[in-house]
Design goal:
The protein is of the alpha/beta class. It has 6 helices and 5 strands. It is about 45% helix and about 15% strand. Bound molecules: D-ribose.
């Protein structure tokens, strides 16, 4: 598996922590920055990572900003991306098993590097359950790609 990782200025420390985790796990990754101490704009990092996931250049993405919210909103605008904003261990596993999330977003002003590392490890190593969850994920994809309407 290949992973693209990026952060804005608000997520540099967690990005370093997750890079060291991926090195330990021998996961191939591309580090897209930022190499900044000054303020940058999170969409400039979220969208390139999301596009690499969407076009198959990498299988997964990890995005970190101050809250994780801006990164997740921006990444989810790219067709084919299922970005999950996660700050707890239960959701880290559940979003892989149930949503087949392909990008993980976290906020460095919300959680510390230790929890972020544990979340990323579970998220990187948990497979999708498929079955009924695949039917649900496919409904999102059909709406996104073919405008197949979902109504009650
Ligand atoms: C940057 O100040 C901050 O807005 C950004 O890191 C992120 O939290 C946005 O959602």
């Amino acid at each position: 598996m290949k992973v693209a990782i990026a952060s804005d200025h608000g997520g540099i420390n967690i990005r370093k922590e997750i890079i060291s985790l991926m090195e330990e796990l021998k996961i191939d990754f591309i580090n897209l920055g930022c190499e900044c101490e000054t303020s940058v704009d999170y969409p400039d990092y979220a969208i390139p990572v999301a596009e690499k996931v969407a076009n198959g250049e990498v299988e997964r993405g990890i995005l970190i900003c101050g809250t994780g919210i801006g990164m997740s909103i921006a990444a989810n605008k790219v067709q084919g991306v299922r970005c999950a904003l996660v700050h707890d261990m239960f959701s880290a596993r559940a979003t892989r098993e149930h949503n087949d999330s392909n990008i993980l977003a976290m906020g460095e002003r919300v959680i510390g590097p230790g929890l972020a590392r544990s979340i990323a490890q579970v998220w990187l190593t948990t497979p999708f359950d498929g079955g009924r969850h695949e039917i649900r994920v496919n409904k999102i994809s059909s709406y996104e790609t073919e405008n197949v309407q979902v109504s009650l």
